[in-house]
Amino acid sequence: MDTATNPQAELQKIEQQIEQLQGAAGDNQEALQLLEGLHQRVEALRRQVSGKLTPWERTEMARHPMRPYPLDYVERIFPEFSEIHGDRGFADDAAMVCGMARFRGREVGVLGTQKGRDTKQRVHRNFGQPNPEGYRKALRFFKFCEKWDRPVIALIDVVGAYPGLGAEERGQAEAIAHNLREMSRLRVPFVAAITGEGGSGGALAIAVADRVLMQENSIYSVISPEGCASIMWRDSSKKDIAAAALRITAKDNFELGFCDEVIPEPPGGAQNDYNAAATSLADALDKHLSELEGLPLRQLLDARYKKFREMAQYYRTV
Question: Exposure check for the chain: N or C terminus, fewer CB within 10 A?
Fold first, then answer.
């Protein structure tokens, strides 16, 4: 398709031009003016492209290697973060990060799944896939926050729970199921935000929250598009069809009632402006926490139960 009718292709072409000009512009005023015009065009194209992404393109955006991870958000909006380690049963899981912090005048507990940027970090973080000890560390952290009456914030960007033999031998399914039960009756306000991928039970295991938020280009699904395509059509290349059928985007999840708010991202995605993405996320978290903190405990627990009990109801009986 010609770049005149394909905003994505034009965007890539202009970004390449900007890279070339930045190194050679120096103090040349004409080159600097040209750069400014190109930057403005890039911003316009990013806004145009963001509004027309297919579900599969949203999936690719959620997996962007430069997308902010939970610790990038912790650095920007949760000062005085103090991490805890270990599940006091087997080991520490670096894929699951938990700690106490401050957030806009309140003390909170923050946890999230961390993928890692380079090969060394990815191996250390197990590519962001928690083992049972990661979920048991999260449960230990939930109980700690409950004891000290601290609201909990979960930042989720995970492909899924680790499916390895060792994880299964140590009770991966039991660890996730235990978390689901205990989160449903956690006696403090709890807000979860999907910041990238929200993959299956690996995400749900830290997302049974009073409010579930999703960033604009995040996804939340019971299975990956590739996995779904492999099961349904024995052909993982049909992942784009599966992505559309699964309704995995933030907009779809909001319409289905699984998500309580879609958080806007900077033009072109959160990877283009970490600070702007963090500000939007922080504003949404602050709004929902403020609403939840005013609720009596019994009302908080009843509302959480009702929220998950009424999900996916397509028929109502009188």
Answer: C
Those residues of the chain that have pLDDT short of 50 are 1-5
Q: What is the pTM of this model?
A: 0.81
Nearest CA among 175, 85, 171, 93 for reference residue 139: 175
153: which DSSP letter? E
Distance between CA 12 and CA 42 in Å, rounded?
9
3-state secondary structure of 109: strand
Q: What does the pLDDT read at residue 3?
A: 38
For the chain, first and last CA: distance in Å? 53
How do the residues of the chain divide into helix, strand and coil, expressed in percent and rounded to 5?
A: 55, 15, 30
Length of the chain: 318
* CA 191 vs CA 46, 61, 114, 231, 272: distances in Å: 29, 23, 18, 33, 25
- pLDDT tens for each residue of 186-201: 999 999 999 999 988 8
Give 249's strand partners. Answer: 219
Q: With contact defined as beta carbons under 8 Å apart, do 131 and 89 qualify?
A: no
Supply the angle between the helices 29-50 and 7-25 in degrees, to the nearest 10: 150
What is the C-alpha to C-alpha distance for residues 272 and 265, in angstroms, rounded to an integer? Answer: 9
* Closest to 191 in 3D by CA, of 310, 75, 77: 77
Rounded Cα distance, 276 and 78, in Å: 15
Q: Report which of 143, 139, 154, 155 is spatially closest to residue 93, judged by C-alpha positions.
A: 139
Q: Within 10 A of 110 (CB to CB), how many other CB atoms are there?
A: 29
Which pair of tokens denotes residue 68? 């902010």
What residue type is assigned to position 238 of the chain?
K
Work out whether the CA dihedral 19, 20, 23, 25 comes out positive or negative. Answer: negative
Rounded Cα distance between 297 and 188, Å, is 8
Cα distance between residue 270 and residue 226, in whole Å: 24
Quick check: helix, strand or coil at residue 191?
strand
